[in-house]
Records
---
Amino acid sequence: MQDLGISILFKGVNFQRLMGGLWVTLRLALITIGLSCLFGLLFGMLMLSRRKIAHIFCRIWLEIVRFMPQLVLLYIVYFGFARLFGWDLDGETSAVIVFTFWGTAEMGDLIRGALTSIPRHQTESAAALGLKKSQIYLHVLIPQTMRRLLPQAINLSTRIIKTTALVKMINVTEVLKVGQQIIGQFYRQPDAAFWVYFVIFLLYFLVCWPFSLLARRLEKRWA
Amino acid sequence: MDVAFILAHVPDYLSGAFVTLRFGLYGVGCSLVLGLLCCLLRYFRVPVLRQIAGGYIELARNTPLLVQLFFLYAGLPRVGIRFSAEACAVIGLTFLGGAYMAEAFRSGIESVDKAQVEAGACIGLTRGQNIRYVIFPQALATAVPALFANVIFLIKETSVFSVLAMMDLMNVADTLRTSGGRTTEVLFMLVAAYLLILLPVSVLATLVERRLRYAGFGNQHSV
Amino acid sequence: MSDTILRVENIYKSFDGTGVLRGVSMEIREGEVVVIVGPSGCGKSTLLRCVNGLETIDSGSIFLREEKISGRTKDLHLVRQKIGMVFQSYDLFPHMKVMDNLLLGPTKALGRPRAEAEKEALEMLERVGLREKAYALPRTLSGGQKQRVALVRAMLMRPEILLLDEITAALDPEMVSEVLNVVIDLARSGMTMAIVTHEMRFAEAVADRVLFLEDGVVLEEGRPEEFFHAPKTERAQRFLQSFTYASKREA
């Protein structure tokens, strides 16, 4: 009797290999999320600055990110930069550059939105109570900003995790690629591909879903 | 930049853009229908189907389209379910987009004041009439920005159709890049093509949103 | 002897274990105007909402012209077609012109021909002084105008009874009388009404009978001239006193 294709995942180190591939994209996502938070804060502050030139700069950046598929941006950095500037970037570096470029703009826009969403009279009534500027930020503005920002930032992080799957297209050996290798080794097993891709699908779901749930719970609690 | 090369390959890009746009729009259309259906199933609390819709939305929102396509195109045929590349493209995009559209419709419906629903009930409308004449028009007006954002998002996502055997924009560019080596020109045209597709959508979105604002929806409740 | 339109029998309603209505009974006869007063949170709005099926009751029963309407889940819209209700927040449909607001119920719920309903709507608008606003959008109207439109919208359903839930609570003071005069006009033409209000002088002017509700029970019931000038219970006296202010010059 022939085994079900799923059994190949438990042969040898196949499952560990798959998890290793998943970790490649997750690690990229984590680096991207960290950098995006950092640069996003700067970006958000830049958007709020009174300088017109800063506005225009941010606007253009944001529009590029909104209009260009991430895959196109990946191609530009991975293939184009080598040609244009002679920079031969490997896939993972290109991915971090592109996703951070994207994440920074989106995170910055969220931060700007959260900061401007707080009504002015919150600051005014806090000032009327005699609070110092630092106290107003610490006790009034930052807590309210965080409540609005955190669920959205978590959602953006989920999107970043999902989007890092694209590195497959610029020759990074991530989970799909590992999956293809495993399928290649077990070509005698006709339904191997079905199970391997099904498991990868589930793995992504299991990684992203908890974040989505968390974001929704926070949103509900702080609404 | 080699202008002659660019001009020579405009027809290739046009046909690629046509493929991208065509299957993108099929996907968007089906997503709207599926999204509305899921949203209504949940709103009317249809037993069983409502749970299925909820589970589907979670699955689709928390997995990358690339992985969904691999499963559809390379996984399912191994257990005897075979779709053409074009069908996979539309099914995949609809699977992803339906969930996003459902969420946009849902937040539109949730934004309709509960008092409006009661007012509809008080003039003796049935639940269906209330949805159709009172709730849905207002929900749609609120949902329009999110729906358009989804359209742009979905058209951008079509870039991963290139893993299917389809001559979409990405594949046209990839073929030219690997054969000719004119990376800069190839990428330049790729960017231009996506801009040409997405700019009109964005302009349309702005126009519709502005018109809805003039029509003066919402905000009648000061209480 | 006129017929009973609405009969509420010993109804109970609680939210999260807190009793809001604790055995309320009342009867409203045809052409009668009953005003329900009482302190905030006494259950008066809930009472109206229960009558219209917007809230389900825990026990007791409600009859409209001897037909039991409480405990129904099916075809609730048929019941509501016979009961008009107006809230404090007007709740006109913002995406429809005044006329479409008015005709939605008559044409869709009752299936009346549009032309005939439109003629009646124009007559009603004329009566409340808003003929020229028939094709305006709600957002261009003042609060008082919106509330008059809301009254017309409810009346065009030709309801057996009209429930008014604090319909002037959200209005600027100078707009209150234009709305209440419409209500008094309706009362004179014989409309049966149950009115929850905080406007005591209006209550006295319009009511045939006053119910005083506190803590979910009817504490006192009587003719307006009795209730407002010689309330029997001490609670009602205190409630009515809360609408007057002591002068600083009084000793």
Note: The interface with chain A takes residues 58-59, 61-64, 66-68, 70-71, 74-79, 152, 156-160, 162-163, 170, 173, 177, 183-184, 187, 190-191, 194-195, 198-199, 202 of chain B (CB under 8 Å).
---
Amino acid sequence: MHTIVCIKQVPDPEIPPAKFKIDPVAKKVIPPPGVPPVISVYDERAVEAACRLKDKHKGKITVLSLGSEKATDVVRHAISMGADEGYVLQDEAFENLDSFGTAYVLGKAIQKIGGYDLILCGRQAADWGAGQVGSILAEILGLPIITLACDIQVEDKKLKIKRILKDGFEIVEAPTPAVATVSSEIGLPRLPAGVALMLARRKQIPIWKAKDIGADLSELDPSKVHTEITEIFIPTRERKCEMIPGATPAEVATNLVSKLVKLI
Amino acid sequence: MSEYKGVMVLGEITEGKLAPITIELLGIGRRLANDLGEELSLLLMGGKAGVLAREAIAYGANKVYVAEDSLFDEYNSDTYTQWISNFCQKTMPSILLIGHTDIGCDLAPRLNGRLRGGLAMDAVNLSIDPSTKLLVSTRPIFGGNAYAKVVSRFARPQMATVRTKIFPPAERDDSRQGEIVSVAEKVDPSIIKAKVIDRIKEEFEGVKLEDAEVIVSGGHGIGSAKNFELLWELARLLGGTVGATRRACDEGWVPVTRQIGQSGKVVSPKLYIAVALSGAMSHIVGCLGSKCIVAINKDPEANIFNVAHFGIVADYKEVLPVLIEKFKEQRSP
Amino acid sequence: MASREVFWNITYGYVVYVLAAIGIAIWLYGFYQRYRVWRLGRPDECAKEIGKRIGVFIRTTIVDVFFHRKFLRQPFSGTMHLIIFWGFVILLLASAVDAISYYSGYHIQGTPYLWFSLISDFGGFLILLGILMAALRRYVWKPRSLNSLLDDGIVLSSLTAILITGYMIEGLRQAATEISPHPDWAVWSPGGWVFAKIFIDLSEGTLRSWHKFLWWFHSALTVGVILYSGLTFSKLQHLIVSPLNIFFRSLGPVGAPTPIDIEKAEILGVGEIKDFTWKQLLDLDACTNCGRCEDNCPAWATGKPLSPRKLVQDLKGHMLHLSSNSADSHESSLPLIGEAPNEAEIWACTTCAACQEACPVYVEHILKVIDLRRHLVLAQNKMPESAQLMLRNMQMRGHPWAGAQSLRLRGDWTTGLDLNLLGEGNHVNTLLWVGCTGALIDRNVEVTLSLTRVLKAAGVDFAILGEAETCCGDPARRAGYEFQFQLMAEQNIEIFKSHHIQEIITSCPHCFNIIKNEYPKYGGEFRVLHYTQLLWGLIKQGRLSLSKEVKTVLTYHDPCYLGRYNGIYSEPRKILQGIPQVRIKEMRRSRERSFCCGGGGGHMWIEEQPGTQKISQRRIEDVLNTGVDTVVTSCPYCLQMFEESIENKDSLKVKDLIEIVESSLKKSS
């Protein structure tokens, strides 16, 4: 069985909150120097899901990453977990794409690769977290989409996918090929080790440009984006702890609840 | 693009009633519609849709579309996407609001892909830009460290999944008038590719610390395993789970798997309630990713107050029971 | 002239040599069979450097075998073995003397003979006393670490029989030839004399026939014991196998694992018994099941399922299963890791080396544990979740402190300080290597800052890497995640070389140990110092003067990786002793016998078995027993483990040695 996994390289989410800086003019996040980017948390789970399927059913895993040339690092990481090969999609035209543009480019690359049974993505990217690429990709390719997978089984060419719900799980049955987005409930991804790690060190990772995948640049025209970010901001976080007032425990509790209601 | 008009809310029906999020969406939807000077419509799907339509009008909808097909009683991605996209292509709403629920999170991106509109997920604020008349959605990015305002200049409909309990519910006014439109179009069940074959409700203890949205955490000040039950009660009520500091785990009051901190788990829930724990840095490291930290501790000098957003200096044994009560009151319909 | 006739009353005495030769031949055959089993293991580096080995062997023999250094750490059983050993040496020498006398014609006579006889008898007596002590310990006191097998009983009883019959033979001879004509000689052979007095009334004929019978019985029994030992590979084999094991003991640094060639390795770690090297298999046979390792193991002492003795014996069981399947067999043996040894045992080890330090026959336990971990991690991807979290963080972020990066980044500790931060292309002689803990964990950053201030006060010219520093790789290597360690080692060596660094000062013994002892195999040889070594040197040179009073009663806890791994015990103490008003009270378990803090072997992150006492808590008990107000250590892990475990921070403080040093520095104007 052939699984294609789409992964993204993101700035490391694990930094002191005080160091999280944005450039409001460029509308970009400035990662602190010296902190290397990492593979997006859910995408790594998607690779893990693919590896588990490969453990059981043999077959092949291809990894795709749309990003900068540095994205070869995350592709290599996926290979060291057990993927067979990977490609980086890098082109000037691929910068600043929205979810539709991203899905379009990935779709073109996937069509070029072909012969797949399952496409996996993380449920959302750890950076911008739009959470749509997987579903839009499914629409572009005309495939069923199953979101928030925490366990994927294959029986007689049919997928049995366990999905996370707010208060439990459901099992969805779907034909192959299909697209699934993977959530962190799948568990810890495996450690790169063994033969896979050795393979990853030597592996060549091709970089595909727009022409390599036959992308129509007019589809990626910046004026054609479906969503734009007009502003990014960091909510002012009061450094001081706000002490909840109240003469009695009941009053204090009431005041606290009213403060928290928006959160949950 | 000017053919797209109005605010449409995708309603959800839970346990035979309008879901609370739907009532909240009607509230914010009404405001947006007023700002645009346009209509607010609601789409209800399923066997019970007709019965609830009147109520929806009382909550502010000008028009309620009803698709009273029992096929829609159970959500299915294929049928809903197909039907709603056809429906939207006919009704052409300018804005489409969906709840950020199990259904909404699954449906919205796919619907957006089908309709090729513009979608912002997990919106915590919505407004109409006075000059452009565009829907401005505010959504969290980078794990909630920042927020982005998103617009769709050309793509239609402008879609947003809205986080629950952000907006107040719409006010009910039974004197309101409105139109109920029955939509007869059917969808062919043979288009279903992915179907649910089983559903399992889970005990809360199953929610992993790393994935929990609410964590109630206890420290050495809790005093005993029995006292942790109070934390469990609060956690379950809020749909979360219980964590603990290393010392509490060492004492055996909770399993070691509940340990949060430098040598335990690193968590980032929306709400972290730190009960009777001093806030040693080795513990703080594990919970600093929380969006909101509430500290309850007898000692006003405790370090936890240096990192918490809200603090209560009190004996947790006095505060927690009342807090539980207040939350219960707030949550009951 | 006092003397005795060798081979008196014995005809065809040379037959005993024939018997012995046959016995030895059969013994050699048995040994050869075992040798073939050992050789099923993979090649080992220890076959090299034979010349150096001979020197080490002689030294070890003198210190550990003649003087029984390690044995005597357990006074009772050490003494027991000491007297058995020397008793046998005496008896064997005596027998050799007899044999030489007989064939050379030169006999000891007169007073020398009497002393000779006395010493021989004394030798036998020593052995009997030793056996009595052994039996008392094994069968009456029954300490937990001593599990008794049938072999033990057979050995003790057959040796007793040999000795008793030996005295009986002597007594019979004395009764027949000595007592009457030379009563004053008899007392010089007290063992025989006892029996002589019992037999005195027997007729000469009876005496002679009993004597002959017992003589041959005694000889046959001895040959029998040799055969028994050789064919069953009894613990008596340690007479040959243990010296062999000592000869082939690792000459390299303590606990330094063998590199795995990433490109070519076919076997990752040890998954089957044959994956061990032949020397490691030899180890399993050298073990005499004495239990000293178990007695000193901190994991065992706090209720974890790990006993180093049991681990070795379980592995030996696997090896024996192999030999019973015929040593020729190429079939793979049973998977090693399952019930015994099981994963919980393998992960419980803190690699503290107390087991190896205690072992009198130089069994090397640590590398076996690491080899097993390598198999679990690299080949099977199986490890405790806490280990996996730590190793993932090593792999993704280059340090083991998952979550810590949410609080501070690697280079944050340098903010606002006037330090020589190495930029690209800068060259410097001396580097201060801060370590992950010293850069990322608040309490340990205090120690790092203190160290930089002291170094500056002493005028030491050093540079730092700041955020360019990544982990030395120790936690990964000890947890079996070898490839990650190798990548980090190679990367660090490249960084060191790019800055032309010659000397590296560390504050963490784990960094110190791995950079000094294990990096050379990857092309990185530098002069590496732990800060205590550097400071002591500076004090001797007069560049650092500790003159301010520090009124404190403290105890010094020897970190495992500084002490047992690298032999650094005295420098920290000398530094502390030189500080005015400092009083040091040593714990009972200090220096080589120091009890681990529980942080090594990856256990700073890997959870200890729930429901058991924390190793650090057990060590704190040792500290509290001294009644001091401060425990001083020179390792960031020890500092962390103690800080976590001390219940009442008002009654006991934990300090790093550098902090005591700094408080003794007179502030510069």
Note: The radius of gyration of chain B is 23 Å.
---
Amino acid sequence: MDIPYTVEVRRDTGLNNGKIGIWLFLASEVMLFGALFASYILIRTGSPSWPRGDTLLDVPLATFNTIVLITSSVTMVMAWASLMRRKFGTFRIYMGATILLGFVFLIVKYFEYSHHFAIGEGPSHNNFLAIYFTLTGLHMLHVFGGMVVNAYFWGPGAKLYQTNPVWFTNRVEHSGLFWHFVDLVWIFLFPTLYLL
Amino acid sequence: MSDHAADHSTDDHAVDIDKHVKVYITVFVTLMVLTVVTVAISRLHLSVPVAVTIALFVALVKGSLVAGYFMHLVSEKRLIYAVLALTAAFFVVLLALPVLTHEDGFWIPQAAEPAAAHPEAEHK
Amino acid sequence: MSNPADVVHAQHVAHEAHHEELGFWRKYVFSTDHKVIGIQYSITGLLFLLFGFSLMMLMRWQLAYPGVPLPLIGGLFGDARMPGGTMLPEFYNELGAMHGTIMVFLGVVPLAVGGFGNFVLPLQIGAPDMAFPKINMLSYWSLFLGGMTMLGSFFVPGGAAQSGWTSYAPLSVIAGTGQTWWLIGMIFLITSSLLGALNFLTTTIQLRAKGLTFMRFPFFVWAQFVTSFLLLLAFPPLEAAGVMQLMDRVAGTSFFMPSGLIVSGQVLANAGGGNAVLWQHLFWFLAHPEVYVLILPAMGIVAEIIANNTRKPLWGYRAMVYSLVFLGFMSFIVWAHHMFMTGMGTAMAAFFQTTTMIISIPSVVILTSLLLSLWGGSIRFNTPMLFATAFLPMFGIGGLTGLPLGLNISDIPLHDTYYVIAHFHYVVAPGTIFALMAGIYYWYPKATGRKMNETLGKIHFAGSLVFMNVVFMPMFIVGLAGVSRRLFDAGSGYDFAQPTMHWNVVSSWGAWLMGVFQIPFIFNFFWSIRNGEKVGDNPWEATTIEWAAPSPPPHGNFAVAPQAYRGPYEYSVPGAAKDFTPQHEAS
């Protein structure tokens, strides 16, 4: 007996299992980053002085990274739209672009990190850098996780398209939801850490 | 079979998918503009409360655009809204956490000090 | 492909064929079948309960006879822990911290949610399996890794975590290596719970049988549903806190470390500026909902068994469901009642005290409904029912003694005394664990096709009930005398603790004798797999859908997808031919 509603939607909820699963997962992610944001606010308001982000961090690089991540969100949603139009070739191009842009983001982040370590500003330097490394580090792990899943759907996972295109499109949509969420977190991280 | 029904609905989607794509491009451009705007505002070196308000407002708009259009929340099923509403409620509780660690003064900043001083005077 | 339906069908056939050739490893170890995973969870949970209980029995020796060498086995623990058989304070602290952690996160939760939830919930809603079987497997193995990390931490230099199960900063940040292992273990356990929770929620919403509306759910399904929401939304803040504490310990940050902290006469070199109370907030933001994670599945199990054995519908089913949902919601805004002593303002204390009083109302509604369900029933006192009935007064004591702790005035003298220990152990040990025992006796026939032995079960019950109370009742007295729960010698150095010292001896002997009375259970559990009385699919003549499946249920559970025609507890329907009308029987 196969598990129902993996592909088709259940009539009364109007959803398939994967869609509910990914949204529940994102709900827990909201609480994860929410706790870190709350900690950030608490530590910042409790400290006598707090550095402006741009005195310690590289705003142009981060602005570039913001643009990279937003662009990757668009390519992600375009990858899904290509599948909806049943254009597998276009899907591969957009999905490939999404993964590459994620990669660019990580490389830029690597340069930012290594610069900080080179001048001895590690996470233990002060609480601003502590929360900076924790938040961006956790966010980078999410970017990496999203890239792994996307790479799977770009490569070996794409076999499913041949046998069940609807299911494959759904799975890409769900992986996209996660990717957009990662983008969304960055949209909040960028001003809070770099600009304020 | 229900599989067939699902495929059929996909075809329906394919008709207006072009409309979707146009929306995605518009949202993309808006997000870019807002990114530049928020960086530009930070160059003005406004006072912290004002800067925080503006930056978070811009971030909120950008976030809503991503959630609404890229994540299709503008046309999602009721169940997803319910889950997110519940999450939002507890998220607010979580963000209230820094406030909760404050002493009474945070709630009644003016009244707190004289009220605290008063009983001491009586004891004397 | 022009017709995906055909392809799906072809895949389906291939899938079925594939299942028949599953080897031993795929079938029993890395299984994706919810029943196998449920049993894996249950066995793991039971083993950890036994292990956590053993840690406590060691501690009880030290508390009853402080400084006296432990006879017979005292030499086994080595000079680093118990030189000459006498327990070192550090080792006592390890035992205390790990007893709490293991009992809560590796004992009760895996058994109540992972075990019963996995095994029973899909069957009760008439589903073929969980919605995401592979994630389900991942969830179990994540728990397994977490458990192994916790066990492994006993063997690192300096021993396991010593900062209590709450791991309060800054003590936990400056503690030895074991604490790092504790944090890594917790991250595995949290991941496991999150994956499990989203799976339960999706399964309950999507895979329930045709006709099984939410108001036709057995109470157990409702309990698991609310519990899963708590796990899903309350655990991530602790994960965040765990990551921050890990950063504090490994990367030298100061999230929880105030400036200028002096340890052993030296000012710490940290950057400082952190907030130790932040850890408490984040910890209790999880850990208060966690209390309801411990108790709600237990209430669900008890509700099933009481309805079945009184042969009556549950009294006030709707009120119980609404109370449950309200309870789940409120459990997120009461956490700071654990923190009245952190110097919080009076306005905040008043707020949390009020929410705490409010949350006791739905608990009382559920307990009262269960109690009134007994009224006028022709009760069958089999082993599951004995445990379920005992749950009511035991949980009642636990709940009522919690009220003075929720009011900040009375919390001040009681905080961190043995009174607190007695209170929450009455909720969790004779409360939840009795319910879990009831559940094991009740669903054992479904898992194995055989009943557990009734005589041994009754011996197990009687001994456990008596000695549970012998263990915990004296702790109220010790606690009211003001003895702190953290003292490794039970306060033998203090004058004020002297009048209550003998109660520690009573508690300890109660604990050891309770251990003896678990032997019939352990024997019964294994013996009955082969030698228990053979029974049919529905030995208790129950109404819920899990009893429609064969015992033990095959892969995929039901030959034909069941359908629900009525509410869950149609017992003794006037005019019906038999005294139970199953949910899945068309009228």
Note: The first helix of chain B runs from residue 2 to 43.
